[in-house]
Write a structure and sequence with these properties.
89 residues, 6 helices
């Protein structure tokens, strides 16, 4: 069974669907960080060094296991030589 088929099956469960929808912003942030880091050619370890933190912190943020603070996201944007934009849609 591929991921999309499995995800459709899981989303039939109302409790899972609610949690999935609620966690979407964290996963959007994680995907944006991963994309920006890879575009710059940085490993998690490289990025951690630029932020004066550990690779495990970067890993937890990229796995959406922790919510990044606005101040962390600002530092991250600076380390990646990008800008931070937050939108409500």
């Amino acid at each position: 069974m591929d991921w999309n088929t499995y995800k459709k099956k899981l989303l039939k469960n109302p409790e899972f669907k609610k949690l999935y929808i609620e966690s979407e912003p964290e996963f959007q942030i994680a995907r944006a960080i991963i994309r920006a880091r890879i575009e710059k050619g940085y490993t998690q370890k490289d990025l951690a060094k630029k932020l004066n933190t550990t690779q495990s912190v970067i890993s937890r943020v990229e796995q959406a296991k922790t919510s990044a603070s606005i101040s962390f996201l600002k530092r991250l944007a600076q380390a990646l030589d990008t800008s931070l934009q937050i939108n409500f849609v």
